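Ticket #4471: structure export looks truncated?
Reporter: QA, pipeline team
Priority: medium

Steps to reproduce: submit the single chain below to the structure queue and open the exported record.
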Amino acid sequence: MSFWRQITNGMTHVSEYLVTLGPAGLFAVALLDSALVPLPGGPDAVMLVLSTERHAWMPFYALAATAGSVLGCIILYYIARRAGRRALDKFPPSKQARVKELVDRYDVLSVLVASVLPPPFPFKLFVITCGVFRLNVWRFAAAIAAGRAFRFFLEGFVAVEYGEQAESFLARNYPAVGLGLAALIVVFFVLRALLRRGKKEAGGQRPEVGRYSGAKMRGQDETEGSTDL
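Actual output as written to the record:
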């Protein structure tokens, strides 16, 4: 048996053992998977299995998976932050440049969208890029938490509704759902930015009108005063 096959089998046994621990095991699987130690099936498969077996525990599973994923991403973020640009060496330069451009342009919005999209989307490249270029860690963690919570709660809901057919249902529909949600997130933030800009512009004009009107009234008062004299 080859060395890599032994490693793979060992990881499989670890994953199978962690599944038996319920929410704590799912937390560990999500943490390891997000911190660059992937386990067979990952937290998504474990989330489906556990939620199918115990429907009432689904919210706890989703919260545990979300917390583990966020913590694992923060660990990877700090590893990349310490390593600097060397952490990006294994990724093609074209992908590095594209992700860096998205992070620079859209900030944590790009991380939020990336955390929702299903594999093979290069989510870890976004995490590493944020660490290398020192995106604010609290805003980074909040974006990861929001995206992963949606993903795991959706998987749990599907597992409760469809049981053993949940995996095939998600395989058919989640890519479209993920892309649709990503589009909605982008539209929401664009509209919010436009509304804020409109309010700022409106707010910037009002003081000018007020100052002009006040000056005009003071001028009229002075004119009237000089006439009286």
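Status: closed, not a bug. The export was complete when the record was re-opened. Leaving a note from the reviewer for reference: Residues 3-10, 208-229 have pLDDT under 50 and may be disordered.
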